[in-house]
Structures are given as structure tokens and as C-alpha cells.
Amino acid sequence: MKAAIEANFDGLVGPTHHYGGLAYGNLASAAHAGQVSNPRAAALQGLAKMKLLADRGFAQAVLPPLERPDLRSLRRLGFGGGDAQVLAQVARQAPHLLSRVSSAASMWVANAATVSASADTADGKLHFTPANLNTSFHRAIEHPDTARVLRAVFPPGPHFVHHTVLPECPAFADEGAANHGRLCAHHGAPGVGLFVFGREAGAALPARYPARQTREASEAVARQHGLMPERCVFAQQHPAAIDAGVFHNDVIAVANENLLLFHEQAFADTPQVLAALRRAMGETRLRAHQVPAAAVSLNAAVASYLFNSQLLSRPDGGMLLLLPEDCRENAEVMRYLDELHAAGIDEFLFAELRQSMRNGGGPACLRLRVVLAADERAAVAPGVWLDDALYARLCDWVQTHYRDRLSESDLADPALLDETRTALAALSRLLGLGEIYAFQGAA
Ligand code: SUG
To answer: Taking the model in full, what pTM does it have?
Structure first.
């Protein structure tokens, strides 16, 4: 069995970060629709979170944002002419589309892909399936560019296998790692995949909001990654949780090594999920910590994003929970931290991520977890690892290229497109990723 670490790859917030109110069923996105955003502060907040963990000895890397506005999608939708003309036309004829193709939602890389560790796959390689994000237009257009970024960062070859997205239709709607947890004795040991879905043919559906992930999609990902069926558990999200604003499972549950922290109303059938996990984990003991609704209500969980925290194994063996600063405002949640301490979480850190949180993206949404053995780690594009020097360069880069306020009406400004392209070209050089953007001519 190989030794392995878990690295966190965080999405950098793109220069067009704004509040479009685009994500139906995501309460924060709806609540902040139309507000003026601050892309510069958003990107710096994300970087500060990365630095906090890097300074604590965690392996931390960055994933670049996608190019937005996405002119390719606008051209597919019938807008023509030069870039400035396309933008002017869409702003006039269909402004709602302009916000969608300008969304910086690729920052929430927990939705970029599902990743399986090499200890779990039949061929002993790491597998990636980009998520088709089929439920909403502004996210369904991410995957072609996401796939290109992932291939640049994890070059296909002896260590990394990249699959194409699942068929892009509602039956295979897939939201990636946000609905996937891995339970194991330690990161290098074989793990059990917990795949959480919101909908399957014949099962009860939420009444109000969309169930974004299907069982069929989760099963297909597990199959194409070559996971052992007896080490996969497929669990239905509680429809009432989805209706309360839990649009991804990572808003209501988080796993690390053998600890599963989840809300009483996370799953449709909790006893069945826990029994299936215990069976699949065999000799490895599951530590299941259920947070009772009487202690933290579903609404408090959604408002505070307690479960959207990063649960991490410290290099010294203890466990750490990195929570959003917003949790501090919630007395129920803060009181409950004592219980979590008793459950084996040694340390609590808080990150100020309000710019992302206002669109429903907490600490866990902003990162893609990748378990890497030493040889796999060495095969990752070297320029993406965050150290003090890269952190300083990225902060300078943000200060140079990002606006400090953006409203929906700014999205039609052709200068924003130029600024974004200049910023992204500089970023791809800074990270040593080559020509990853379509406008650079390589795609
Ligand atoms: O898909 N928000 C994202 C938030 C994703 C959070 N990710 C995880 N839970 N892993 C979404 O709902 C809002 C964009 C806007 O309204 O401008 C948005 O897409």
C-alpha cells in the first residue's frame, strides 16, 4: 500500500465574479441576485484561504478560472460578428444570457469533476470525470474548458486517466465531487466511495427545488473509474434537505478518512446508508457523527454552511475543520463545535469567504480533493503548487487585473473581456500551464 497525501486544488475566482441569481435552489444565490460584487476581494479571500492551509503544511494547489464571458456559447446561440458586436447584441436582445455566459462559477471546483484515488481503481491510476453540470446553463457550459484545464494540470499518461463527461441529458445529470465522499483508514489505503444522488427513477423527488444529481450518473462514474462495486455506496439525499436549500450533498455532510460528519436530515434513509458503509468498509471502523436537527436545524446548517467546511487530516495526525466565518454568527452552530471536538475534531479554523458565500460557495465548494501518492504528486504540473512566492505573485496579479466592483450592467463592457483575457494570459504563464485558453489559439 502506497503512502499518499490529500491535496486540495482550489479554484481561483475569475474576474467576472458577479451575483446573477442563476442557481435555482441555492438560497444564497437567490438572496444576493443583482447585488454589486467585488471580484478582487473574492479572489483575495480565496487565496487567503489557500495560504492559511498551505502555511499549516497542507498540500495546496490552484486551478485557474475559465474564460468568461464565454463567447463560444453565445456564437452557438446565434449571436454573430466580432467579439464586441456579439456582446452588444446579447446585452440588447438577451441580457439574461450575458450573466450566464459571464458567470465565474468555475471557481467552485468541487463541481469540476469526480476524482477517484489510485488505491481504489482497477488499473491503479487516478481517474477524473468532469461533471456535465447539466442542471443549469451557466454551469453546463463549463466542462469543455474544465476538461482542458484538468488535462493540463494532471497530464494524461501513466498516472492520470481522464474520461469524457457523462451524456448531457437530465438522466445523467452530474455535479462532481460535491456529491462524493471517500471513507478510508488513511488516505493511501483503499477507500469506499459514498456517492450521493438527489434523484433516481421511481424514488421520491423534492417538491420545490431541482435534484441535481442522478443515481444513474453516480453509478456511471463509479463504473468508468473502475471502482469495486462492493466498495461503493449509493445514497439518496433527503428530498426535504434539497427543498431547504441543500443543492449539493457537501452542504450537509463531509467525510475525511474514517469520519463522516452529517446532518440528521442529510440522507433519505440514514440507517441503511450507515449499514451499507460499514459493510463496504470491512475492517475499517466507520466513525459516523450525526448532527441532530434539534441541535443544529436544517435551516441553520444551510445558512451557516457548517457542513461545507473542509475536514482535513493534519500532518501531525489530528483533524482540523476549516469553517466559513459566517458560522461565527450562528449561536446554534458555535455551541455545537464542542460536540464536534468531542467527536475527534481537534481544531477549528475560520475563513472569510463572504464574496463566494453570497453565491452559495463555501470552503468545501472552492476545492477539489485529490489523493496523491508521491509519484503521482510529482506528475502534477509543477507550477500550480501554492508556496509563499506563488501566493505573493497571485495576489499581485489579482491587484493588477481585477475590478473591485462589478454589476450586471458592467458585463456588456467590451473592456471587461479584454481585461479578462489579459489577466488569464498572464495567469497561464504564471502557473506554467501553456496555452490553456481558447482565445490563445491552442484549443
Ligand atoms: O452551482 N452557485 C453555485 C455554487 C456551487 C457550490 N458548490 C458546492 N456546493 N460544491 C451553484 O449553485 C451561483 C451563481 C450566480 O447566481 O451568479 C452559482 O452558480
So the answer is: 0.97
